[in-house]
Amino acid sequence: MAKLQGKVAFVTGGSRGIGAGIVQRLAEDGASVAFTYVSSGEKAEKLVSKLENLAVKALAIKADTGSDEEIDRAIQVVVQTFGRIDIIVNSAGLFITGTIDASDTDLVAFKKQWEVNVHGVVHTVRTALPYMGTGGRIISIGSTGGSHSPYPGIGDYAATKATLAAYTRSWARDLGSKNITANIIQPGLIDTDMNPADGLHSSAMLQSVALGRYGNPTDIGAAVAFLASDDAQYITGVTLNVDGGQTT
Questions:
Q1: Where does the Ketoreductase domain lie (predicted)?
Q2: What is the C-alpha to C-alpha distance for residues 28 and 120, in angstroms, rounded to an integer?
Q3: pTM, whole model, 2 decimals?
Q4: Residue 241 β-bridge partners
Q5: Span 8-242: which CATH code?
Q6: Edge to edge, what strands does the sheet with 181-187 contain?
Q7: Long-range Cβ pairs for the range 191-196 (8 Å, 24+)
Q8: Is the pLDDT of residue 107 over 80?
Q9: Given CA atoms 239, 243, 245, 248 in this order, what sign does their dihedral have?
Q10: CB atoms within 10 A of CB 138
Q11: Domain ranges in the chain?
Q12: Beta 58-62 vs 87-90: how paired, if at all?
């Protein structure tokens, strides 16, 4: 039997890139999957069709993680459709850069990044927890930038991911008595539209990667599926770097 057979997963930001890789793997392992998207409606529907071919239930919901109201509505749709939530994967995120001394800083964009990357994640977890029973899983997608600064201009983004790691450690303590685990995965260089393996600066960035290549969204999906399974039932409060040895 598939390791996640009978489980219900809720993934934010699941229509493309790393999120889609996560959604795909959870479905391959037998979970019913609901995921959110903001603007990639066509990709979301194609992904639903692909998942249904795996004989699992799938649902795409348009919802901005930075909006409490939209996340509230999305979670209600998931619960009404599937009855509960066993696995929460916080994958939605923004990547806004800029040095602290920049004169053209877009403060509105930085505020939105915080709303999505931090507040949105916290709100998602708080809102979904009442529908999660014992043995639930909370998995957040951080960044290796949350624990080191490889180049200038990522301070605000890195701070959101470092904050998310701190929350994860606290949630592991808060929820341990309920046998709910909380872990965070920190991807390194992953080949996506946002950071393609053939990008302008990819060769330079690869100099720090022990394996000498970019990872794929499927690599993150595999890590999420492991942490969501019974094989990881004694793992909580952990920060797992999936980065090809970039931070070694």
A1: 7-193
A2: 27
A3: 0.96
A4: 186
A5: 3.40.50.720
A6: 58-62, 32-37, 8-12, 87-90, 137-141, 181-187, 239-242
A7: 191/215, 191/216, 191/217, 192/16, 192/17, 192/18, 192/217, 193/16, 193/17, 194/17, 194/95
A8: yes
A9: negative
A10: 27
A11: 8-242
A12: unpaired
Residue 157 annotated in active site: yes
pLDDT over threshold 90, residue 236? yes
The answer to whether 97 and 18 have CB atoms below 8 angstroms apart is no
108, 151 contact by CB (below 8 A): no
DSSP secondary structure string for all residues of 113-168: HHIIIIIHHHHHHHHHGGG--TT-EEEEE--GGGT---STT-HHHHHHHHHHHHHH
Give the pLDDT score at 1: 62
Q: Which of 37, 131, 157, 214 is catalytic?
A: 157
- Cα 176 from Cα 173, distance rounded (Å): 5
Which residues are registered as beta bridge partners of 239?
184
Supply the pLDDT for residue 153. 86
Residue 165 to residue 143: CA distance in whole angstroms: 9
Is there a contact between 215 and 242 (Cβ–Cβ < 8 Å)?
A: yes
Task: Give the separation between CA 34 and CA 23, rounded to whole angstroms.
Answer: 8
Tens of pLDDT, residue by residue over 141-196, are 999 988 877 778 889 999 999 999 999 999 999 999 999 999 999 999 999 988 88
Question: What is the distance of C-alpha 87 from the center of its chain?
Answer: 12
Report the C-alpha gap between 5 and 19 in whole angstroms.
20
> Residue holding tokens 């600066």?
201
Which residue is listed with tokens 């470092």?
Answer: 162
* 20: pLDDT strictly greater than 90: yes
